[in-house]
TrEMBL record:
Localization terms from the record: Cell membrane
Domain of life: Bacteria
Homology family: Belongs to the DoxX family.
Stretches that traverse the bilayer: 12-33, 53-72, 79-98, 110-129
Species this protein is from: Caldimonas mangrovi
Name the record gives this protein: DoxX family protein
Annotated membrane topology: Multi-pass membrane protein
Major location (coarse): membrane
Length: 134
C-alpha cells in the first residue's frame, strides 16, 4: 500500500469523520427524527435531567458533529462534547456492558470517550478546514 495511505494524518481523518458523523446522526436522526424533541425532553426528564437541556444537547451534537467532520477546531470540539458522553455513560452504567441490553449498556459511550480523546491527541488530520496544533 502506498505510504500516502499509511500516514497518521489519514488515520486522524478517518477517526474525525467517523466521530463527527456519529454525533450528527445521534442528534439529527436519533433525537430529532426518531424521538422528536418532545420525546427526547421527556426521556431526559425521566432520567432526572432537566428537560430544558434537550434543545442545547441536540444542537451541540449536530453543530459539534459538523465542526468535527469539517475539521473546524474539531479536536477541541471533541473535548467540549465529552460532558454529553459522560452523562450518557452515567445514565447507562447500571444497564450492564452490552448496549443491546434493555435501555442500553455503557460500552458505546465509553468507547466514544476514548475515541474523542484519541481525536484530541491525534489532531484533525488531513483535509481539515481549520487545524490547530498543540
Amino acid at each position: 500500500m502506498p505510504l500516502l495511505f499509511r500516514s497518521p494524518g489519514h488515520a486522524a481523518l478517518l477517526l474525525r469523520v467517523a466521530l463527527g458523523v456519529m454525533w450528527i446522526t445521534h442528534g439529527l436522526v436519533l433525537k430529532l427524527m426518531t424521538f422528536g424533541i418532545d420525546g427526547f425532553a421527556g426521556w431526559m426528564s425521566s432520567q432526572g435531567l432537566p428537560s430544558v437541556l434537550a434543545w442545547p444537547v441536540v444542537l451541540a451534537e449536530i453543530a459539534g458533529g459538523t465542526a468535527i467532520v469539517l475539521g473546524v477546531h474539531g479536536r477541541w470540539v471533541s473535548l467540549a462534547l465529552l460532558p454529553i458522553l459522560l452523562g450518557a455513560t452515567h445514565i447507562h452504567a447500571g444497564n450492564g456492558w452490552v448496549f443491546t441490553n434493555p435501555n442500553g449498556g455503557w460500552e458505546y459511550p465509553v468507547f466514544l470517550i476514548v475515541a474523542s480523546i484519541a481525536h484530541f491527541l491525534l489532531g484533525d488530520g488531513v483535509l481539515a478546514l481549520k487545524r490547530e496544533r498543540l
